[in-house]
Amino acid sequence: MTVAYLSVGSNIEDRETYIRRAMQLIAADSMTRGMVQSTWIWTDPVGMPQGSARFLNGAVKVLTDAELPYFFDLLIRVETELGRTSKGDYQSRPIDLDLIFWGDSVVATPTLTVPHPRYRQRQFVVGPLLELEPGLVDPETGVAVADYLKIRASNDL
Asked: What are the two backbone dihedrals, phi and then psi, of residue 93, each rounded to the nearest 5 degrees?
């Protein structure tokens, strides 16, 4: 069994409904063995055009028997089913499912990088991850994920 951590967000229409449905679809998959969700938080859009709607964001811990290609495909299928038409950055979206961690794996392929390459700079990802697992360690760097909040705070001074 693998523990996967996801960042989840939505900034179109009824965000709660999109997130709830995405969680239902992931939980209903035959390879999913359990799921825990963080608190959902409202965040301002990062790097998006001025006037973009706020996001509802959180993190999810998923226990799965799936192999990585299957699980990643599941996330894409859920996004597509819920109306996401592009995985491009900086666009409004009904649902955004980013795979942050896949167990202790470090993966770099043309279509997938794990840990997610930008999670360390995103407090709206790091905070909810730590709510789920306070002692989480980045498998790529060996740094405690909590330290990224400290690094981010010192950079904001």
From this structure: -155, 145
In this predicted structure, what is the pLDDT of residue 153? 47
- Both structure tokens of 41: 């938080």
Question: What's the rounded Cα separation, in Å, for the pair 12 and 49?
Answer: 14
Q: At what angle do helices 68-81 and 15-28 cross, to 10 degrees?
A: 140
Q: In order along the chain (157 residues), what is the average pLDDT of each group of 10 residues?
A: 97 94 97 97 87 93 98 96 75 89 96 92 93 96 90 48
Give me the residue spans of the domains in the chain: 2-155
Separation CA 126–CA 93 (nearest Å): 21
CATH number of 2-155: 3.30.70.560
Residue with structure tokens 């035959």?
Answer: 30
Give me the helices (H) in the chain, please.
15-28, 68-81, 123-132, 145-155
* Beta carbons within 8 Å of 157's beta carbon, 6+ residues apart: none
CA dihedral of residues 18, 22, 128, 103 (deg, nearest 10): -160
Is this model's pTM higher than 0.85 or not? Answer: yes
